[in-house]
Amino acid sequence: MTTTTSMSWAQQVRREADRQDAVILAHNYQDPQIQDVADHVGDSLALSRIAATSDASTIVFAGVHFMAETAKLLSPDKRVLIPDASAGCSLADCITADQLRAWKAEHPGAVVVSYVNTTAAVKAETDVCCTSSNAVDVVNSISPDQEILFCPDQFLGAHVRRVTGRRNIHVWMGECHVHADISPSDLVDQVRADHDAELFVHPECGCTTSALWLAGQGELPEERTHVLSTGGMLDAARATSADRVLVATEVGMLHQLRAANPDTTFDPVNPHAICPFMKQTTPDKLLTCLREGTDEVTVDPAIASRARRAVERMIEIGSGRDH
Q1: Is the pTM of this model over 0.85?
Q2: DSSP 202
Q3: Cβ-based neighbours of 239, under 8 Å, separated by 6 or more
Q4: How far is CA 127 from CA 75, 155, 211, 316, in A?
Q5: 183-272 maps to which CATH number?
Q6: Residue 128 in contact with residue 317, Cβ under 8 Å?
Q7: Is the model's pLDDT at 288 over the cut of 70?
Q8: What gap in Å lies between CA 75 and CA 92, rounded to an integer?
Q9: Distance between CA 279 and CA 252 in Å, rounded?
Q10: Which end of the chain has fewer beta carbons closer than 10 Å to its terminal beta carbon, N or C?
Q11: CA–CA separation, 55 and 75 (whole Å)
């Protein structure tokens, strides 16, 4: 019989997952070792939807807290665990339910569109959620005359305002500190060093406007400049024939892109774009989570029912892929 000490870490994880009747979900920004042992890897909303259709009674979400909350919203009868309950999100922390209620009071009648990168309490104050890939579709589904409050990401909000051409969108001035630090100067330097490279830019990035400006100026061909969600990046990676792609997002995404297309070189625009919250999930914490059933994520039922409606309304508009 194989003993625990002679088993590899991955074997121990898989054994404990079987014992716990657990499905392991890993976000694209997790360390490669965590991604490789998971049952499913992807963006937060796609993973939550997979969890909802899984036969497993336990969901282990290797990600940050709002993602595990979203999984709980869509799977209220399942046990949801996160390897480190303190793994927060600088973007989700940019707005609280109280702040959103105060903002709504300043704009009575406005429709609230919240990015899925928010807490359940904020989602409960939201009319419809969105992801980075379907934010434009969600906004376009709202009457052109309707005032919109968009939160919490200022860069995604600016991108949506630019693409839709709508001027009645008020944007909350929040940001993901990792994406915000992928600066225009980082992008300009990389592009000028390799004019033939394609560019994948996540719309949360502080350099999104610069990427589009460079393309408009002809410094980077428009057909090789792509503003994409992480799911969109994977689709584009599989389709590209470029020798090199510069990627502006958290560096954990590179693992999936390289696996999707080994013939293309994928390099980060900023190699220091590392989310410390995502990296709080370590191999040891994942194994402990499975063995001991920690940390369990719960959402107050009254908040959950309201928050769930905002997510379900988004799903009715379009599946979308986030982060």
Answers
A1: yes
A2: -
A3: none
A4: 20, 20, 31, 13
A5: 3.40.50.10800
A6: yes
A7: yes
A8: 21
A9: 9
A10: N
A11: 11
